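User: I'm writing a short methods note and want a consistent example. For Pimeloyl-ACP methyl ester carboxylesterase, I'll paste the sequence; you return only the structure tokens, no commentary, since I'll be parsing the reply automatically.
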Amino acid sequence: MTQTLNGYLKIGDGPRKVLAMSGWFGSADDWQPLVPALDTDAFTYVFFDYRGYGRSRERDGAFTFDEAAQDVLAIADHLGWDRFSLIGHSMGGVAIQRVLLAAPERIERMAGVSAVPACGSRMDDARLAGFRAVVDDVDKRAAIIAFSTGGRLSPRWSAHLARESQRNSRADAFAAYLPQWAANDFSADVAGNATPVKLFIGEHDPTLTADLMTRTWLAWYPHASLETLRNAGHYPMYETPVALATALDSWLKQSGPPL
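Assistant:
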């Protein structure tokens, strides 16, 4: 019996294998602006779509990150990847850590881009309710995007990204992933993990700051480091794609190709 896989986009055929997981408002298409700058001779990149999102929009499920981790491993098995690295943007930072916990021996290194830590966003009930309100309200999605990029970018761009978010995700999946990254703390499970981690944050991101990264990711992963991307907020793949692609390639090349 053929196993059903999540949808994904594969770029490159290099010996280093990397899988990227997008944010709550995103999809595999978020990574497209990076593609012209990625070293596709050195890397094979897979851009993953969660169930209910993008190329997996019609795929039903529980819409949890434990489920997503198993979906990632199924793709890796399908592609014949024994070991690979992970990139996670925003809520994808939580998701890649669930993959790490599911198969620690298979993960070479991780890169977090404006990445939510393993403690989640620690939202109280009132704030969680506010975020639930964006599920069916594209204008509220746009407002969050504008805030998270420092309120400095074109409102037309924030509105466009919000519409793309709504188009690329099912409301039930979108709603179900929210508590997974907003109110779920599994930091005790990753504390002391020796996996190499690099965190990339935007200088204009008001929430995923250097202080937060220092108190969370850098405190829990002894081989973690931090880099601030200039002229970026929460969406550096759109705001500074060439700089982000260059930084990711440089970090991920520090792990050698498979023997």
